[in-house]
Specification:
The protein is an alpha/beta fold and 230 residues long. Helices cover 46% and strands 11% of the residues. The chain contains nine helices and four strands; from the N terminus they run αβαβαααααβαβα. A four-stranded parallel beta sheet has the order 1-2-3-4, sandwiched between helices. β1, α2 and β2 form a beta-alpha-beta unit.
């Protein structure tokens, strides 16, 4: 959910190879959560890593509040059960490589992703339980520590995220983080209807609204920073 080691290593490598280039982070869903959490962890040192800004979307800020949404109705039937099956398969492969590293029978008995997190993730990574895991990997509690311009776009009707758990300005504090919440959009389900022609004779653009908005957000941040230099 919120392990940041890989992303931190990549940004360090980019700075090493391109020391005079600016780095902007962008991600969706869990990738957005990881990006925000890393920026919170880095705080002022993000600028030392050449990270200048961030634009993310559909972020599960608070896994503690939203975890139960995955095990209800449509989410469970279409997403969670299939995802859980793939997780169990990975666990079966891992137990062959590292015998006795966790209780494979407990993993096989899991009926939900929360059960899997409890039986596998917590045991492997040393969390007390799934609530401890979710609390320590959610980005919501790191937002106020972010020190580079950041734009977040989330839909209030996202089926994977508990609306009441969405961060507020109080969670952001004085951090340069702008929260944008739309009424509709689902989980990465924003779509484009405008074609640019009054008679709708032109084809839809090859990208959707969300990709365009994230790109515009990064461009806006970049140009604003460049103006401050001049």
């Amino acid at each position: 959910l919120g392990f940041t080691t890989d992303l931190k290593q990549i940004t360090s490598l980019l700075k090493e190879r391109y020391p005079f280039k600016s780095i902007y982070l962008s991600g969706f869903s869990l990738g957005g959560n990881v990006s925000l959490k890393l920026l919170g962890e880095l705080a002022d040192s993000a600028k030392d890593s050449n990270i200048r800004g961030c634009a993310v979307t559909c972020v599960p800020f608070d896994p503690v509040a939203s975890q139960g949404k995955l095990d209800q109705g449509f989410n469970r039937a279409v997403y969670s059960e299939n995802f859980l099956a793939s997780l169990k398969m990975k666990a079966e492969n891992q137990i062959k490589l590292f015998p006795n590293s966790f209780d494979i029978d407990a993993v096989r008995a899991c009926r939900s992703i929360g059960d899997f997190d409890e039986a596998f993730i917590c045991k492997i990574y040393g969390f007390l339980n799934k609530e401890d895991y979710y609390r320590k990997t959610g980005s919501k509690w790191w937002l106020s520590k972010i020190r580079v311009p950041t734009i977040v776009i989330n839909a209030r009707d996202d089926p994977f995220i508990e609306e009441k758990s969405l961060p507020t300005e109080a969670d952001v504090g004085e951090a340069p983080v702008r929260l944008i919440y739309t009424d509709h959009g689902g989980h990465c389900g924003f779509y484009t209807t405008e074609t640019g022609a009054p008679d709708a004779s032109l084809p839809l653009p090859p990208h959707g609204w969300l990709a365009e908005e994230l790109a515009r957000a990064i461009e806006h941040i970049h140009l604003s920073l460049e103006e401050k230099k001049n």
